[in-house]
Amino acid sequence: MSIKRYSIPFLFIAPSLLLFFVFCFIPIIVAFFTSLTDWGLGGASFVGFRNYVELAGDPLFLRSLKNTLYFTFVGMPLSVLSGLVAAILLNSSLVKLKTLFRTGFFLPVVTNLVACGVVWRWLYNPQYGVIKWFFELFKISSPNWLGDPRWAMPSIILMATWRNFGYSMVIFLAGLQSIPRRFYEAATVDGADSFRSFIHVTLPLLKPTTVFVCIITTIGYFQLFAEPYVMTNQGGPVNSTLSIVLYLYKNGFKFFRFGYASAIAYVLFFIIFIFSLFQLRFIRHTVEY
Amino acid sequence: MKHNMWILIVFFALAGCKGKDGDKLTIWVMGAEGEKIKDVIALFEKENPDISIRIQSIPWSDAHMKLLTSVIGGTTPDICQLGTTWIPEFASMNALASLDRYVEGSDVVKEGNFFEGSWRTNIIGSSIYGIPWYVDTRVLFYRKDILKEVGYDHPPSSWEEMKYLCHGLVRDTNGDGIPERYAINLPTSDAFILLIFIWQAGGDILSPDYTNPTFDDPKIREAFEFYYSFFDEGLAPLGGTADIDLFHAFKIGFLPMFISGPWMIELLSKQVPEIDGRWAVATLPKKETGTSFIGGCNLSIFKNSNNKEAAWRFIEYMSRTENQTRWFELTGDLPAVKAAWDQDVLNVPIITAFGKQLEDARPSPPIPEWEEIRDKMEVYLEEVIYKKRSMDEALEFLQRDVKKILSRR
């Protein structure tokens, strides 16, 4: 009886399970074994954890790790916060033309990343760029955004925030709309102004949504690749925008070091895994309302 | 383990091959050439009615990745156009067929008919894995009118003259410390140009048997210093080169010189026809030599092709002098066969400068690790140019890192 009861749902998810197994699970396992070999131009032989030991002492890998952490921990709060602000504004009754703004803010999310990168490269152009022109209006000289090692990463963070906040905005909007009105009514009866009801009603009830958005954004940001690939000629200047995935790509597909590249992939996997666990712990303590 | 992997790959390769018709050739050609080659294919098929050809055009940006996957998955074509620097990689993956036997029996494809540097890009160990199709080399593009303005009616012929001319070209008219005219566009870090400077100084990056790096050679330091000096002395713009529109900059005279290859000829006359006749090309300024880099494309037959005879006939056809000239007329690609250069269509000043440079041009080291060594050179050169690392340390680390790359073999 129970077998029959449980077999039907499994039947329904079987196609996607099968696809996941063949195209995700098996490659993940194979990649782990690849990371234990020196598979490269000359063939492959088992080397144990030597790739991982080499990674720990590879200055370029450490650089890419540092860059990726910088990107994630500055970019993630920025895009989550701006997504939240946009969602609250769009949810309030003060804003007109809501659909227009909602679509407009979400548009970058569905626009091809490479196309965005090319356009932003022009915006940042040190000679003819709109941003340079804007700064000149106030008689401020702007740096060479993508060409200066100090400014290249902030420039990429700004572009990524612009591109991704629409996604968190949409999730937050859904979260906001699922908060029952009665909580606000109760707060009003208790004499709370709109700021207090935001702090004591909206924010706590949005916690699961916030955790979800943070995790998804963090996972996405750790895999930074296309922005520096397109905008800073694969990680320049002076490797200031070299990300982990970019370094993985270089090793795997330019230098043919598949074993080493797989080891990089596994290190990234564990970093993301640990951060996701860490963030999920927040959800555990969620109070049921 | 090593062998198992290859058995697996060969197995897949064979599985992918079965059921092919004996007279059908699949050829992969890159970029715009994939379209232009169709005219040549039609002529070939007329001459060889027993062979039919299927052309697959691959964009340059995907080409390397696509080839790599096709080699691992065993779905390679019969013939592929390969960049000269790719031959060592694919040969070492055991993907290419040795052409020794075919070259020996050929009347058309003979070593002496081709530019020496171009032929050498195909030799791995003692076997040949490709036949030169067309070549390119780096030369100096310069604005004749602007050079004349500062008293030069000829291009610089030596490093010293080059530097002297550059200092004469830089202009900062409003005195804000940022020049309105630089002397030259130099990529902030380009291993090929660095390699050219190293050869010109009389050095080389690897020992003749390609087993040991030689970055401790003072001649390499000299080349590093030469490259660095263009930025240190404010002759070339730092960092921004990637985002400056070179054509516009060349037109307005912001960057009156640059080092590049033959593809720029057509691009310049298309993008900025206004300055036609006001620019010229010249062989590179000399130090001990005036050596440049030779690149271009070769045609290779893949190991698991079962139409090797027909494929060879196609390569022979492309190597004939008249077809080399025809290809130049169709595309502007420079012929790899020397005899084609005697034709009138190639006897124009801009092209003959390339011809002269090709006489003194070398390929990059024919080892699969070149791509990784190149990346290391660019990383350290860039750090030196941005003053993030001293030159001594950069050369020391480069020596250490390249030694490690080579020891992995």
Automatic annotation (TrEMBL), chain A:
<dbReference type="Pfam" id="PF00528">
    <property type="entry name" value="BPD_transp_1"/>
</dbReference>
<feature type="transmembrane region" description="Helical">
    <location>
        <begin position="258"/>
        <end position="278"/>
    </location>
</feature>
<dbReference type="GO" id="GO:0005886">
    <property type="term" value="C:plasma membrane"/>
</dbReference>
<feature type="transmembrane region" description="Helical">
    <location>
        <begin position="103"/>
        <end position="123"/>
    </location>
</feature>
<protein>
    <submittedName>
        <fullName>Sugar ABC transporter permease</fullName>
    </submittedName>
</protein>
<keyword id="KW-1003">Cell membrane</keyword>
<keyword id="KW-0472">Membrane</keyword>
<dbReference type="GO" id="GO:0055085">
    <property type="term" value="P:transmembrane transport"/>
</dbReference>
<dbReference type="InterPro" id="IPR035906">
    <property type="entry name" value="MetI-like_sf"/>
</dbReference>
<feature type="transmembrane region" description="Helical">
    <location>
        <begin position="12"/>
        <end position="33"/>
    </location>
</feature>
<keyword id="KW-0813">Transport</keyword>
<feature type="transmembrane region" description="Helical">
    <location>
        <begin position="151"/>
        <end position="174"/>
    </location>
</feature>
<keyword id="KW-1133">Transmembrane helix</keyword>
<feature type="transmembrane region" description="Helical">
    <location>
        <begin position="205"/>
        <end position="224"/>
    </location>
</feature>
<feature type="transmembrane region" description="Helical">
    <location>
        <begin position="69"/>
        <end position="91"/>
    </location>
</feature>
<comment type="similarity">
    <text>Belongs to the binding-protein-dependent transport system permease family.</text>
</comment>
<keyword id="KW-0812">Transmembrane</keyword>
<dbReference type="InterPro" id="IPR051393">
    <property type="entry name" value="ABC_transporter_permease"/>
</dbReference>
<feature type="domain" description="ABC transmembrane type-1">
    <location>
        <begin position="65"/>
        <end position="279"/>
    </location>
</feature>
<dbReference type="InterPro" id="IPR000515">
    <property type="entry name" value="MetI-like"/>
</dbReference>
From TrEMBL, chain B:
<keyword id="KW-0732">Signal</keyword>
<keyword id="KW-0813">Transport</keyword>
<dbReference type="Pfam" id="PF01547">
    <property type="entry name" value="SBP_bac_1"/>
</dbReference>
<dbReference type="InterPro" id="IPR006059">
    <property type="entry name" value="SBP"/>
</dbReference>
<dbReference type="GO" id="GO:0042956">
    <property type="term" value="P:maltodextrin transmembrane transport"/>
</dbReference>
<protein>
    <recommendedName>
        <fullName>ABC transporter substrate-binding protein</fullName>
    </recommendedName>
</protein>
<dbReference type="GO" id="GO:1901982">
    <property type="term" value="F:maltose binding"/>
</dbReference>
<dbReference type="GO" id="GO:0015768">
    <property type="term" value="P:maltose transport"/>
</dbReference>
<comment type="similarity">
    <text>Belongs to the bacterial solute-binding protein 1 family.</text>
</comment>
<dbReference type="GO" id="GO:0055052">
    <property type="term" value="C:ATP-binding cassette (ABC) transporter complex, substrate-binding subunit-containing"/>
</dbReference>
